[in-house]
Amino acid sequence: YFEITLRRGVIGLPKTTRDIVKCLGLHTRYQVVWRLVGPRSAGQILKVKELVNVRLT
């Protein structure tokens, strides 16, 4: 699993970036979600890599 933590807020960012964060299941800062390792999750994480911390568990 990817352990994804939202480190920065999305206020003032483009709508596409906000939508990607929402699709990952993140809503508030420092929220943690777990996603299965796969190409879809990896691609979404790469699009918002400046906003999140990721650990492989």
UniProtKB/TrEMBL annotation:
<dbReference type="InterPro" id="IPR005996">
    <property type="entry name" value="Ribosomal_uL30_bac-type"/>
</dbReference>
<comment type="similarity">
    <text>Belongs to the universal ribosomal protein uL30 family.</text>
</comment>
<protein>
    <recommendedName>
        <fullName>Large ribosomal subunit protein uL30m</fullName>
    </recommendedName>
</protein>
<dbReference type="GO" id="GO:0003735">
    <property type="term" value="F:structural constituent of ribosome"/>
</dbReference>
<keyword id="KW-0687">Ribonucleoprotein</keyword>
<dbReference type="InterPro" id="IPR016082">
    <property type="entry name" value="Ribosomal_uL30_ferredoxin-like"/>
</dbReference>
<keyword id="KW-0689">Ribosomal protein</keyword>
<feature type="domain" description="Large ribosomal subunit protein uL30-like ferredoxin-like fold">
    <location>
        <begin position="3"/>
        <end position="52"/>
    </location>
</feature>
<dbReference type="GO" id="GO:0015934">
    <property type="term" value="C:large ribosomal subunit"/>
</dbReference>
<dbReference type="Pfam" id="PF00327">
    <property type="entry name" value="Ribosomal_L30"/>
</dbReference>
<dbReference type="InterPro" id="IPR036919">
    <property type="entry name" value="Ribo_uL30_ferredoxin-like_sf"/>
</dbReference>
<dbReference type="GO" id="GO:0005739">
    <property type="term" value="C:mitochondrion"/>
</dbReference>
<dbReference type="GO" id="GO:0006412">
    <property type="term" value="P:translation"/>
</dbReference>
